[in-house]
Specification:
The complex is a heterodimer. Chain A is mainly α. Chain A has helices at 2-31, 36-41, 47-56, 63-75, 89-124, 129-141, 146-160, 178-216, 219-227, 231-253, 255-269, 274-283, 287-315. The radius of gyration of chain A is 24 Å and the shape is globular. Classes of the chains: A mainly alpha, B alpha/beta. At the A-B interface, helix 1, helix 6, helix 7, helix 8 and helix 9 of A face helix 4, helix 5, helix 9, helix 10 and helix 11 of B.
Amino acid sequence: MRLLRYFLFRLLQMFPIALFIVVINFALIHMAPGDVSILLAGEGADPQYMEEVRQRYGLDLPLYQQLGAYIGQLLQGDLGLSFRTREPVIGIIAERIPATLLLAGTALVLASVLGVIIGAVMARRPGSAMDTAVTTLSISLFSIPVFWLGLMLILLFAVTLRWLPSSGMVSIAGPREGIGYILDVAMHMILPVLSLSAIWLGQYVRLSRASVSETLAEPYVTTARAIGFPERRVMSRFALRNAMLPIVTVLGLELGLLLSGAVLTETVFSWPGLGRLIYEAILSRDTPVIMGAFLIMSFTVMLAALLTDLLYAALDPRVRL
Amino acid sequence: MTPGLAKTVRGTLRSLPGALSLTVLAVIVAAALLAPVLGLPDPAEMAFDLYQSPNADHWLGTDNFGRDIFARVVWGARVALVVAIGAALLSILIGSVLGAVAGYFGGWIDGLLSRVFDIFLLIPTFFLILLIVALFGASLPLTIVAIALTTWPRSARLMRSQVLTLKSRVYVQAALAAGASHWWVIVRHVIPNGIAPIITDGTILMGMAILTEAGLSFLGLGDQNLVSWGGMIFEGQRHLRLAPWMSIAPGVALLLLVASLNLLGDSINFAMNPQLRTRGGAPKARTRVAPPANEPEPTAETPILEVEDLRLVYTAGDRKIAAVDGVSFSLPRGGALGIVGESGCGKSSLGSALLQTMPNNAELTSGTIRYDGKAIVLNGKPVAEKGRSRIDALRWTRMATIFQSAMNALNPVTTVRRQMMDALRLHKPGIGKEEAAARIGEVFDMIGIPRSRMNAYPHQLSGGMRQRAMIALSLILEPELVIADEPTTALDMLIQDQILGEIADLRERLNLSLILVSHDMGAVAESCETVAVMYAGRIVEIAPTRRIFDRPAHPYTRTLIGALPSLTGPLEDLASLPATDTEAAASATGCRFAHACPAATDLCRAQVPPAVDLGDGHVSECHYAEDFAAEAADPQEARA
């Protein structure tokens, strides 16, 4: 009940943010050099379609009415047509989402679970040589450009060692169903997931190290030790449980960064997700697709933030309306 | 250079990652600045020797147009640094001003700006930048502006919180009172004082900016007229199999530059807050010793707790601070001892030593603690028997503690009942659910917490109730000795009195032995029959409660009693406590209190005072103890 109310409250708060993002998008289209109708319809569109776009978006009307028309189109799920394929942008994007979710989700789970564990272990011995080494290493990890790491992994594991495929999601002549298909996809996933999670592993190790060592200095941890709880239980029941709160928050907030990493990774590995789509759209100057992708990404991040809040509220009894 | 800044710089240079990253940065900056005069081949010059692997002529090989990769990497450093510095400066400029305005004026401006900061946190910034660059055309200045447009809220947030703490500072208020305008105060006083952490964060911003620009270039949205590392990798990708060096070199350069920036920021951060590195942690393993041979069996007369010459030393950086410096006392079974002193006198450290819950930077350098005649600490080392520390066998079942509950002493994410259940089951693994529930209910009744509040989380209880919950937790396993560390601080007077009354009452009913640590002479007087006054790590006077109030024999005790407001007596000037100069006290060759004592003589400054036994358990460490004791205390100051 408490969670439901909280959820609805947070959902309401998201509306102004969504509006803000739409307005930014709208403002950018109008500020960009060139004719708005060309941006919306794509370069080289035939005059008839161009006229249709002008009508639909009310491009001859005053600006505020144009904004209204634009929001109206968006509410109908109309993100325009791809200039390249002439298909609705929303459909093109929806097609690509599962692949991106698979890649980013796997990397997120892998990096956060491993990161939290390593960080928590390091927090037990703050200032030790091991701790300093791991801290330095994790900083170096998230300083690596993710696309470059991907290339280097391809160079090593695909080109030199020939252990793993370097691109795509499935083999060309591979199985299309059953366990064989799953294994095939898994093989293709290893390298992209590895590059994406390596970068984020560094981030999460640091985050969890800081958060856990912070909670280990809290008075309730001293109470737990005075009561006589063994250190392992102090860590799990008292320190980690409380340290999860800031970790979860940051995890939710940085999803946008994770997605941008995913885009770059997909580009390197020709992974058929949103990132690859954006890359292709950039190359062919397919503006409607780029704008649509930005909107969808923004809403995804907002949704993730909402879920994070909910998770936070479930973890922390102090959250109230 | 201010001393704080000098310290930060020294600290940064001294740490290995700090020195290393500064060196790498210096090399990259030098290369970028000197690029035109290094005599390198033109980075754009095409030649016929395509795809050459690294060799003597081309240290890093050549690319698909025969261009020299080393020259291109060096020139690329310029673009990377321009992006880093430009974006960070712009971001800090916008962020500091807006953050300062939000924090300084508060109200609706703050509300509005904070909402904007929040929104920016939720926007996937890389895509926004990508969209801007895709719409407006790829150029370096535009990329820089776009990056700054999405990163400024980061600086703004930092500045806002800085300003919130700076706003109330005296010099800011003074400038305002002197008639300075708000803008003048912001520009002249607030921003310069709050900028340090923002600049530190600037190194992180620079790293982010470089990676963003590289990412854009890699997607083909880089400035086509410039040599950028990201762009080089973009081109190298297509020739990965044929000429891997084309992508390796610029990537390594990127990694080195960004990692140095991040490491530098990290090192500065730690140099500014050294405790960040070593805070918390699991308790370190301490050398344990075997119990002494032929310990006598305890009798009814054996004191429940005996402490002899206990010393606890903290290590902070290169400094050693003796927080407890040779403390001895003994507590009879069923007795109550109050330990009083101002904050920093070592009383809480003493408490943590008794419980063996000291932080890792604390060490017992000497001393013996006996519990019921059995040594639990011998010569500063924990005593273990059959592989188990003796203190562990005492925890909570025989010796429990009441912490100050306002300070998060209870786990905030677990209900009070659950916490009591966990403690109960830890020490009585076989206990049944119903029996445990019954016991918890019993303790709640005893402490006076309504059973309906059992399932509350700590934050749902009032301050007084929360403190009662802490007491209930400490009594759940019927201990013999309870150590209460400031149990009533931060509660209002009325509740303080209630809680203290309840502790005194429980003590009688349960025949508890009690150690009550407090800064409040009055709190201790009500519940303890003996009072020990601590000053700068030592017990300077110990005596039966009545005696210490009637005939205090140490000038420090006198000031403590003098500082006690009397509710019944006439209002008079309270003798204010002289501020303890810990350094002066620790380095004193004579009496520790001499530097602040109104009655100090040359003798006091030259010689450590002996422990003067005044009879009936009254001991004072003062050269003039007998003189002070002989003077009857001012009857108005003594609480009869």
